[in-house]
Amino acid sequence: MPPAPALPLPSAPKAAPAPAAGPTFTQRLDAVGSQLAEPLAAAADGQAGADSAHAAGRNIEETLTGQVSAQAAEDLPPAGPATELSETQKAWLHGSLVQGPAPILTEPGFQALVADDAGAWGQILPWLSQTPGAVPILLHSIYQCLGRVVSEESLSGSERAVLAQALNDRFAAALAAMSRSEALSNNQREVLAEVRGRFVASYSALNELAHHRQAARGFDALQKNALALVAPAQQQAFAEDRWMLPPPIPAAQRGLGADREERIIQDMSRTERDIKDWQFYLDKYLSRYRIAMREPRFSQGLRDRTTQILSNFLGRFFGIQGALHSNLERIPNYSLHASFVNPWTITAKPRRVAWIPDNANLKLVPEPGGYRVEAAFETDIQDDAPLQAVKASIEEYWQGRFSFGGRESSFRAVVSIKKLAPGQEFSAGSLRIFDSRRGVSLASRDAIVLDRNLRYDVPAHEFGHILGLSDEYREGYDPDLAAAVMLQNHASIMGSPNGKVLPRHLKTAYQLLRRRSQRTRSGA
Q1: For the chain, how big is the Rg over CA atoms in Å?
Q2: What is the CATH number of domain 362-522?
Q3: CA-CA-CA-CA torsion for 57, 322, 500, 363, nearest 10 degrees?
Q4: Where are the domains of the chain?
Q5: pTM for the whole thing?
């Protein structure tokens, strides 16, 4: 946890002017205390939900200031009858989705999916039927289009709601038409029909994206409010995008679960509830601080205590904000997206191997008693602390012993990381480590992308992918539950933050690297 931040304390209060006619200070204090009693009690009650805490915070605000800030209008009201896109809306969408600085659709794609042009369908359907992986690409584009409209800041809430629903309805019609097209395979038609029914026609994806937008706005406001209370000289140190390095789970506490899958459910409302609760308590402690500072009759000791309480609270918040942001972004950026492009991602049969590693900077080297894996990375990350954590995590987790062919062997990883100068290009074919600001860490054959809220186990998990191992969790979204669903193996580092590298992981990594070496020698 970071140290408690220093607050920009006001100067010592000046002598109080002669009181004007009206209630005395004691009377005013008693009145405020009486009016705050109920909302403060609601906040202190451990059974109070997010909504009651939020309402209590608004009551406190009104009591202390005489007014309450306007509540943000909902971005998406309950869905009404299906609507048609107007020509004005189509023109706006064309400018944003095709012509904008970050286009999502090609011109034929827009004309087919949004404008429903018969000529464009004549180009899109052959592309879908003849291109491997085209259906997931199409569904990804549709998902990105919905997300673009839901998050559009240049539109008012009502404009955004009407446009998002009309676009969603248009996509539902397009998916229905494709799911009936004889130009596509049975499997393609089945996938398109499933996505249309479970995620588009039901509005479940659109509603979740809108729910995320509301929660993200609450988080942004909370973060801004908290940061504004920190002394200016310290604000950069407490910004959300700094690297957060929570302490590692002790080795003795890793991998204690059974080596099998368990079901976990997470919904956005839980994260939104946490955001509201943090905002409420920030309002609560800030209100006490302001009362103590503005009344000259309060003692310096009382001012010091209220300052310390607020400062300690901010320290706790800045210690968890990275994890809160990761929880907020995981559903739209991973869980919901995964099921939208593959509606059977949760029920698919799990795989233990993702690929055979083929990067020349990943070497299996024999040594007395076993093998070591030498991994030479390059990175454009300039901070030393996360890079040190990456090296330590991989080398600590990826070492042990495994049995193969009747013989027991040792296995250990040795990592080197070359820090590139700002703007310097990566070497061709290099293993790379990148900085992510999307709240999700991931890996490919040749790269690890790290969220700035960097748990100690994450580099070790992502290194498993570099070695060729698959995730041992399956994550997706269930529209019936309106929640993300994860099947997680708590014994395994490839399945859970609480897991560890098991002997079977070492054996599989050895086999994959050995097979790569055999391919290399044979010229395959």
Answers
A1: 28
A2: 3.40.390
A3: 170
A4: 27-71, 87-202, 362-522
A5: 0.72
